[in-house]
Amino acid sequence: MTSYADKGIKPAVNYEAFHHLLFWVGNAKQAAAYYITHFGFRYIGYQGLETGNRDVASHVVGNGDLRFVFQSSLRPGNKEMTEFMGQHGDGVRNVAFTVDDARECFRLAVMKGATPIREPWAEADEHGEVVMSTIRVYGDVDHTFVQTNGYSGVFLPGFIAIDGFNALNDVLPPVPVAFIDHCVSNQPDNKMVEITERYEQMLGFHRFWSVDDKDIHTEFSSLRSIVMAAWNENVMMPINEPADGLRKSQIEEYIEFNGGPGIQHIAIRTHDIITAVGNMKKRGAEFLYTPKTYYDDLRQRLKKSKVTVTEDLDMLEKLHILVDFDDQGYLLQIFTKPIEDRPTVFLEFIQRHNHQGFGAGNFGQLFRAIEREQELRGNL
Ligand SMILES: [Fe+2]
């Protein structure tokens, strides 16, 4: 496990945060309802036939600063969306960043070899003007640069506020979350380093943290991961690849079922994981299971540690929340089961207490939990 202090040369542009994640799905209306029901998101904005969008419907849901956009085709014969979903199933099509200069981000990325997908364009309504541009670094996942210029509408120009399914949130318990902590992609064998170099050159990201297969393995499988970060380290993009193991790793399973590289999980920061997870479970969300032995071992390890976990360990055990720590601090995290039928995309919920890692101490436990699920799926 390695942390990196060298951020490289400060880029001319600033990546401020994740702006939104765009999912292409078979039925965007129902996908939005799923996140509202089980994960406590609120309905934020809509575009579709009623707003003059004749080809694609968009439903935006969010919680805290986090925004997910679900899009579906309204008409027959949308080749691009049909091909994407035929290949990958429902999945993340675009990871959009809030930037200070969308034109310059595009120019710099394309100059360094990024594929230009859409030249900078402006959109405006009575709430302001937003400048955007879109590039590709790998596979079928694009990045849109969003320069918001203080835009004050519900989401982006052209979106309207409707009540959606928010009535559900008046009766179900709230899920307190803050923003996207990190967003992870899986790459095929031996592609990880090449892809991290692209993020370094095209977007000016730097290495923040890494683990290799010596750190992370079970008796069956292992992985390598390098976390790439934007200069201000508000945008974190871990990039994984499988490493040789006795059986098929979860990364290989992902690559097989996703038909190539793509977004594997989205980690959502919360400042109160116990309330968030407890209430998501009441809302029917499905999480990975952690056995009692993990908590017996954790209690022993924490006794020898300098760090004090302030949350109630019995409650963490009851909710199957994992703990990773060093001498300075700790993090709490939990992973959902896949959020669709293909074993591809899942969510993580994470709370940090002076700890900037990614849960390497839990990866073995996480792998064993996923291997139990892989076995049930006939994919181990
Ligand atoms: Fe993660």
What is the secondary structure topology, with strand pairs?
Elements: E1 2-3, E2 15-24, H1 28-39, E3 42-47, E4 56-63, E5 66-73, H2 79-88, E6 91-99, H3 102-111, E7 115-125, E8 128-138, E9 141-147, H4 167-171, E10 179-186, H5 192-203, E11 206-211, E12 222-229, E13 236-243, H6 250-258, E14 262-269, H7 273-282, H8 292-303, H9 313-319, E15 322-325, E16 330-335, E17 346-353, H10 360-377
Parallel strand pairs: 2-5, 6-9, 10-13, 14-17
Antiparallel strand pairs: 1-11, 2-6, 3-4, 4-5, 7-8, 8-9, 10-14, 11-12, 12-13, 15-16, 16-17
The protein binds fe (ii) ion.
Fe (ii) ion (FE2) binds next to strand 10 and strand 14.
**H-E string:** EEHEEEHEHEEEHEHEEEHEHHHEEEH
Helix-strand makeup class: alpha+beta
Q: How many helix segments?
A: 10
What's the main sheet like? 9 strands, mixed
Name the helicity range. 25-40%
Instruction: Kindly state the number of beta strands.
Output: 17
Mean pLDDT score: 94
Ligands in the model, by name, code or SMILES, are: fe (ii) ion
Strand order of the largest sheet: 1-11-12-13-10-14-17-16-15
Rounded radius of gyration (Å):
20 Å
- Overall geometry comes to globular
